[in-house]
């Protein structure tokens, strides 16, 4: 986020390096208005695009969703629906998106429900975050070992007293 504050704009070359997008993807996505540079759009040959930090986030989201198998048409539809749901410009940077290659889901703020974007929220299901389960298990193991060590210490002291 420090980089976000120190650099206000990114040229196409920087956008390609940062996001892994090709120049052809940048050109095409700008032409179909999927991801347009918000600071300066190319107006012809020799003109440069200037992307904001949030534009780079959006490019990264599109690339990740394409790699996950979601068709470009669904990505475009989902981003439009997402904007309608949540018009805050930088909200995409704060969300967790999940896809099965067919649908796109957004994790709700309580981190327990995925809400379908493409089906306008008609499908929702519970989510088990494995990181949370692992963290809870590690804490329980630590407490258990701590308790066992404490219990073992008491048992050995009792045995020593019984011998004496």
Report what the structure shows.
This protein has 164 residues and is of the alpha+beta class. Among the domains are: 1-67, Multidrug-efflux Transporter Regulator, Chain: A, Domain 2; 128-164. Helices cover 52% and strands 11% of the residues. The chain has a four-stranded antiparallel β-sheet, covered by helices on one side. Strands 1-2 form a two-stranded antiparallel ribbon. Strand 5 and strand 6 (124-126) form a beta hairpin. Residues 1-6 have low confidence and may be disordered.
Q: What are the main properties of this structure?
A:
two-stranded antiparallel ribbon, elongated, four-stranded antiparallel β-sheet, 164 residues, alpha+beta, Multidrug-efflux Transporter Regulator, Chain: A, Domain 2, 6 helices, disordered N terminus
Please outline what is shown here.
The chain has 164 residues and is α+β, with helices and mostly antiparallel strands. The protein is built from 6 helices and 6 strands. The strands form 2 sheets. A 4-stranded antiparallel β-sheet has the order 3-4-5-6, with helices on one face. Strands 1-2 form a two-stranded antiparallel sheet.
């Amino acid at each position: 986020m420090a980089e976000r504050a120190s650099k206000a704009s990114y040229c196409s070359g920087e956008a390609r390096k940062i996001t892994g997008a090709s120049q052809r993807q940048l050109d095409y996505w700008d032409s179909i208005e999927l991801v347009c540079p918000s600071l300066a759009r190319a107006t012809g040959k020799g003109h440069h695009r200037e992307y904001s930090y949030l534009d780079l986030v959006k490019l990264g989201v599109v690339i990740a969703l394409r790699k996950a198998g979601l068709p470009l048409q669904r990505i475009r539809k989902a981003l439009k629906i997402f904007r309608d749901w949540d018009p805050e410009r930088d909200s995409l940077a704060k969300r967790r998106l999940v896809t099965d290659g067919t649908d796109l889901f957004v994790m709700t703020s309580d981190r327990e429900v995925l809400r379908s974007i493409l089906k306008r929220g008609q499908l929702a299901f519970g989510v088990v975050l494995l990181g949370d389960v692992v963290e809870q298990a590690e804490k329980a193991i630590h407490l258990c070992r701590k308790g066992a060590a404490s219990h073992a210490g008491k048992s050995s002291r009792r045995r020593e007293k019984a011998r004496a």
